[in-house]
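Translate structure to sequence.
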């Protein structure tokens, strides 16, 4: 697993380090819960990651960390969507066609980027790894920090 922190050398974690990070998981249930927190957020918005955080996060630091990041991603996408709707509404006051020409491609590219990072994080979670999402696409709040 790569460390995405400045000044840290990129290296793979040893299997024992992964097991400690998962609080002794290794049964595959932690990976499943972590992956579900990402994938189900597409269909259920904030409900699935929050449920995984509250239920599975109590017994596993790995699941808690993944679900917290999925919650942050969902909140960020929500803020961006509201902002896009406001900008699109303001543009439509002048011309509906121009608003669609501007905001249509912007929303499409943003959707592709979110899905790209969501799939990368979900695949890493299914392998028992943690993929740190870029700060611009994932709100990091003190309430969701995992020590």
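Result:
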């Amino acid at each position: 697993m790569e460390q995405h922190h400045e000044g840290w050398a990129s290296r793979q974690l040893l299997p024992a380090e992964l097991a400690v990070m998962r609080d002794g998981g290794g049964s595959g249930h932690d990976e499943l819960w972590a992956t579900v927190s990402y994938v189900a957020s597409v269909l259920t918005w904030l409900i699935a990651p929050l449920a995984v955080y509250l239920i599975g996060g109590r017994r596993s630091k790995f699941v808690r960390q993944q679900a917290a990041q999925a919650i942050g991603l969902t909140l960020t996408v929500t803020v961006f969507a509201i902002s896009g709707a406001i900008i699109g509404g303001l543009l439509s006051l002048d011309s509906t066609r121009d608003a669609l020409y501007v905001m249509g491609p912007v929303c499409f590219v943003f959707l592709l980027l979110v899905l790209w990072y969501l799939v990368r994080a979900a695949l890493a979670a299914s392998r028992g790894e943690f993929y740190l999402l870029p700060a611009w696409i994932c709100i990091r709040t003190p309430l969701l920090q995992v020590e």
